[in-house]
Amino acid sequence: MILYILCFVLFMVGLYGVLVKRNLIKIIIGLAIIEYSVFLFLILIGYVKDGTAPILNSEAEGAIFVDPLPQAMVLTAIVIGLATTAMLLSIAIRLYRKYGTFDIREIRSLKG
Amino acid sequence: MNNLVPLYIVVPLGFALLSAILGKFIRDIGKYLLNIGLLFLTILTIYLIVYVPETLIYRVGGFEDINSIPIAIYMMIDGFTKILLLVISLVGFLVALYSISYTKQYTAEPKFYILFLLMMTGMFGMVISGDIFNMYVYLEIAAIASYALVAFGIEKHQLEASFKYQVLGCVGSMLILMGIGFIYWQTGTLNVADIATQLPAAGPYTKFVSVLFIVGFGLKAAMFPFHAWLPDAHSSAPSPISAMLSGVLIKAIGIYVIFRLFFNMFALSPQIAMAITVLGILSMLVGVLLAIGQWDIKRLLAYHSISQIGYVVLGVGIGMILLANDGDKAIAAFSIMGGLFHLINHSFFKGLLFLNSGAIETATGTRNMKKLGGLSEKMPVTTATTFSASMAISGIPPFNGFFSKLIIIIAAVQAGFYWLAFIAVIVSIITLASFTKVMRYTFYNKKLPERLSKIKESPFAMALSMSIMAVLCLAFSLLVIPEFREIVFSPAVEALMGASPPINSLMGY
C-alpha cells in the first residue's frame, strides 16, 4: 500500500512543478515526473510478490510470474513519453530563441 | 469485409512513410498522397455506411478468442464509428484540398503533409480501436502531430500556444493512462467490450475511474473548466490545421471517447450522466459569452467551438440522464440523435469558417476585424461561403445547424428539462449576434480600407474546397429526412444505447 501512496505523492510533486514553477524547463521536468509516477504505478499493478520474469520454458514449471502486460504497456508509454518530452524541449528551445528567456511571465504575446 | 478495417490505419500511416522517403526526390508527393488517400477513405466510408450495416471486427495478428476471452487487439467499426469516420475523412479531404494552395507560404511544405497524415492516422486509429490502451497510443500520435502542427509557422505566438497546449495535453494524457491502469487493475483486461462485462456496477472505484476519464478526455475535448488551451492553440495554428483541430480532432479524441466509454464500457450512473450534461451546459454558456467580445476572427471562432461542443454534449447528455434513470427510451434516442447530428454539422460549418478566416488572412494579412471591412466587393466566394457557414452555426433554416439544434431543443422539452431548452435557445441567439458582428465588420457595411484595395479572391483550390463545404452545409440538412436518418443515425444510436454493445454479441457474451 505504501508504494501506491508514494507513487501518488510523486504524481503530486510533478503536478506542483507544472502548476507553480515559472521556468519552462522546470515545467517540463514536472511533466516528466508525472509521467514517471504513472509508469511506476503501471509497473506496480503488474507486480506479484516473489514473481519471476514471465518466460515460459521447461524450468518455469510451477513458478510465479509477474504480469507481463503492464510491462509491455509501460515500454510503449515510455517511447511515447520520450516523443512528448522531445517535442516540449524543442518548442522550449525555439521559445528561448524568440524571447531570450525561459520565464513564462515574460512570454505573453497571447491574451484574452 | 472485415479485412477493410485496417485500411484506415494503413493508408494514412503508409502514405506518411512514403512521402517522408520519396519527399527527397519529388517535392510535392505528400500533397497528392494526402488528397488521394483521404478521397479513397471518404469513398470507402460512404460505401460502408450505405451498403454494410453490420458491425465489422478485425483482430490484429489474427489471434482468435480463447474461451471467448479476447487475446488480439480489436479494431471495430459500428454505426457510431462510421459517423466519426465520415466526418474525419470528408472534412480531412476538403481541408487537404484547401492546403494545396495555402501551404505555398511555408518553406518546409513536405513536412506539413507528413504531420497531417500522421494526425489523420491518430484520429482514424482512435475511433476504430476497440482496446483502451491502443486508444491511448493513437491519441498520443494524433496529439503529438497536432502539437507540431500548431507551432508549424514558428511565430512567437504559435510557439507559445503550442507549449500551453502541450502542457495541458500531457497532463490530460497522463490522467487517461492512470485511468487505464486502474481499469486494468480491476478487470485484468483492456478490451472495451470485455471490460464492460468485468467492471463492477457503479461503486466508488468505478466513479473514481470515471472522473479520471472525464477530466482527461475533457482536457482533450476542451470542455468548460478545461478549455484554457483551445482559444490559443486553435487561433494560432495555420488555418487548415485550425479547421482540423476544431472541426475534427476535439471530437475524435475527446467527445467520441467520452461517449463510447460511458455508454459502452461503464454502466451509466445518474450522477456521472448529470456531471457530463452540466459540463456541456457550462461549456455552451461560457464559450459563447467569451466569444462575443473577441475582435480576432479565429479567436472568436475558437471560443464558439467550445460552445458548440457544449450542444453536442448536451444532446447526448440528456439521452444519458434518461437512460440512467430508466426514462423514455424513444426520447433518449431522439436526443442522442440530435447530439450526433450536431457533431457532424459542427465539423462542417466550423471547418468552413476556419478555412474562410484563413482565406481572409492570406488575402489581407490580418485577422483583426477592426482593420477589415467591405471585403464583399473583392472576395465574393469567401463572402458567400462565410455567410452560409455563419447561418448554419447560428441555426437559421434551412441550413444544417438549425435542424440539429431544433432536435436537441425538442428533445430537452420532451424530457422535461425546460430550463436546458431555454439556455440552448439563448446561446443560439447570442451566437447569431456574434456572427452578425463578423459579417458586418468583415464583409459588409464599411468601405474597403485604402491599403486593401489590391486584394484578390483566394486561389482556385481554396475557393473550390470552401464552395464544396458550403454546399455540404446545406446538403447535410437533408439528413433530417427519416429515410436518411434511418441509414446514418439509427445504427449509431443503437450502438450507443443497446443493452449490450454490438461487439459483445459478436464475441458471444
User: What general outline of chain B do the C-alpha atoms trace?
Assistant: globular
| Biggest pleated sheet of chain B | 2 strands, antiparallel
By secondary-structure content and strand pairing, the structural class of chain A works out as: mainly alpha
Question: What's the arrangement of strands in the largest beta sheet of chain B?
Answer: 1-2
One letter per element, helices H and strands E, the order of chain A comes to HHH
The third-level CATH topology of chain A is Helix Hairpins
| Number of contiguous helices of chain B | 19
End-to-end separation of chain B: 23 Å
Percentage beta strand of chain B: under 5%
* Helicity of chain A, as a percent range: 55-70%
Overall pLDDT confidence of chain A: 88
Instruction: Name the biggest interface.
Output: A-B, 33 and 36 residues
What is the topological layout?
The complex is a heterodimer of chains A (112) and B (509).
Chain A: H1 2-20, H2 24-46, H3 68-99
Chain B: H1 7-22, H2 29-51, E1 56-60, E2 73-77, H3 79-102, H4 109-128, H5 132-150, H6 156-187, H7 192-198, H8 204-221, H9 230-236, H10 239-265, H11 270-291, H12 297-324, H13 329-364, H14 380-394, H15 400-414, H16 418-442, H17 460-475, H18 482-497, H19 502-507
Antiparallel strand pairs in B: 1-2
